[in-house]
């Protein structure tokens, strides 16, 4: 008994879009992580351009820091990886604690944890994913 071979031919109509990631890291931001996380939690659910437009109208220091970081991430993705800015989305948006600076202030006496003043800093890690041109 003879068997037939069935071959499939596929016609390439359109190429599937290729996605790539771009990473932004900032290791020393002069703002406490708690203040920065408040805006990160709301903007991580949005697309990159809509988060940027929303943060430009927010009047806080953390919003100004995030606007600069997002603009840098968009420029890096566009220039280095040839990604389309309209297709960018956040894949990860993490705020961690950075280095602390401590100093004593004897004018406060025993208040403020024995006169020790702690300046908190943040680390920001942002990964953006988008479609290649």
Automatic annotation (TrEMBL):
Record keywords: Ribonucleoprotein, Ribosomal protein, RNA-binding, rRNA-binding
Any Pfam family hit: Ribosomal_L22
GO cellular component terms given for this protein: large ribosomal subunit
Source organism superkingdom: Bacteria
GO terms under biological process: translation
Transmembrane region(s): none
One of the record's GO molecular function terms: structural constituent of ribosome
Role summary: This protein binds specifically to 23S rRNA; its binding is stimulated by other ribosomal proteins, e.g., L4, L17, and L20. It is important during the early stages of 50S assembly. It makes multiple contacts with different domains of the 23S rRNA in the assembled 50S subunit and ribosome.
Family: Belongs to the universal ribosomal protein uL22 family.
PANTHER family reported for this sequence: CHLOROPLAST 50S RIBOSOMAL PROTEIN L22-RELATED, LARGE RIBOSOMAL SUBUNIT PROTEIN UL22M
Subunit structure: Part of the 50S ribosomal subunit.
Protein's UniProt name: 50S ribosomal protein L22
Organism expressing this protein natively: Candidatus Shapirobacteria bacterium CG03_land_8_20_14_0_80_35_14
